[in-house]
Amino acid sequence: MSKVNITKWMDENKAKFADLAKQIWENPELGYNESFASSLQIKTLEESGFKVTAGIGDVPTAFVAEYGTGKPIIGILGEFDALPGLSQGVTPDHNPIVLDGPGHGCGHNLLGTAGVSAVIALKEIMEAEALPGTIRYYGCAAEELLSGKTFMARAGVFDDLDSVLTWHPATSNTTANFSMQALTAIEFYFSGRTAHAGAAPHLGRSALDAVELMNVGANYLREHVLDGSRIHYQITNGGLAPNVVPDKASVYYFLRGANRKQVEELEERLIKVAQGAAMMTETSVRWEIKSGCYETLPNITLNELMYKQVEAAGPFTFTEEEEKFAEQLLQTVEPSVLAGAKSHPMSANARKTLDTDFYHNMEYFGKTMGGSSDVGDVSWIAPMGQIMTVCAPLGVQVHTWQATASFGSSIGLKGMHYAAKIMALTTYDLLKNEDGILEKAKAEYLASKQGAEYKPGIPAGVKPPVPKKEATPVLG
Ligand SMILES: [Zn+2]
What we know:
Elements: H1 2-12, H2 14-26, H3 35-47, E1 51-54, E2 63-69, E3 73-79, H4 108-129, E4 133-140, H5 148-154, E5 163-170, E6 173-175, E7 179-180, E8 182-191, H6 207-221, E9 230-237, E10 248-257, H7 260-281, E11 284-293, H8 300-307, H9 310-313, H10 320-330, H11 335-342, E12 358-359, E13 368-369, H12 375-379, E14 384-390, H13 401-407, H14 410-432, H15 437-449
Parallel strand pairs: 3-4, 3-5, 5-14, 6-12, 7-13
Antiparallel strand pairs: 1-2, 2-4, 6-14, 8-10, 8-11, 9-10
Helix pairs in contact: 1-4, 1-14, 2-4, 3-4, 4-14, 6-7, 8-14
Bound molecules: zinc ion.
């Protein structure tokens, strides 16, 4: 009966959480600036009787909300940051609400809210059944900057978890059996000497020259790295004026690879390229590691358990109107993009625009997809289960305006509600630990680490890049 009660409670209360997700969608905030979303979730959880600890790892918007006592301790991860330039209304044509403004093109308005609703539903059932154990919701900042969870991990808040669950909005219902790439984000700052670029160029030592030569070196390095590695950069400071030899210039690199070790080796080689560029230009260079996340370790034991909840979660359907909106959105996507997106692991197996079937197959197990997330860090600290659900039409890619439109529509809200149910039902099974599922998940987790230990990829001295002044949250 209990599982029926969980889904019943969630169906009865779904409007409340749809409203929360919608509010966060309407107030998109970039990483480390999520004061509205964080405060709103904290308020909701505190009102429901959760004990909240905020400001985790010196990140004001990161928090942990907890209910219950003792073991097991099961966590659910949430996110709430938006992306720059993806402002968009819920319309099938490109229609930014704020020109060049931020938008929820990765659906983190849904991602976090699903976790909040799952833990509140669980608290109800734990109270009703006097079920022992502890549940936690992790309000994780700045996933898009790939570092929020690493700062939280450095603070040790995931260390005592027995298992942890998460999900991501996508274009099919599927267990996430694939891995995501490890990543290092590192910025190089060159210093030289200014001079009049026309009158006395021989006196100048250009930091911008160093940046350009470093990029040339990196582009030659590209040929001699392991397949699947990624090197991308952005010049963050190219000087102030053409007639002043720039004494300061900087370049920001993302390095990706199949695992942490590969990325660390790449990092060492790129540092040599930077040092070489500094030597060539008689400038100096220093660098800072801004994020250093791990590849995700999928846990098939937990993913299977999530998949098994499909029946208990109940029906998942879309209306004709939603189907029509989805088709209209797809008409704005380039056919070549559409074809490529369908072969992506996030849309694996889906056969139609809004496919409500749930897929769990091992086709992608052991394969790495070309993206990274700081959830990888958590998967190295505790066994982690992860699913994707349909929150956008098949063919829409995340980080696009079409995705922002979908994640603010009833399609996104339905996918969120479904993911929340699966996470709540799975957590219920984990709290009961029938058939020693926690021990099985842990054994698989230990085996997949192959003896390696988690060591945060961001050095101890690096502080989170939080804004100097916290905006005062305005709550409705
Ligand atoms: Zn995302």
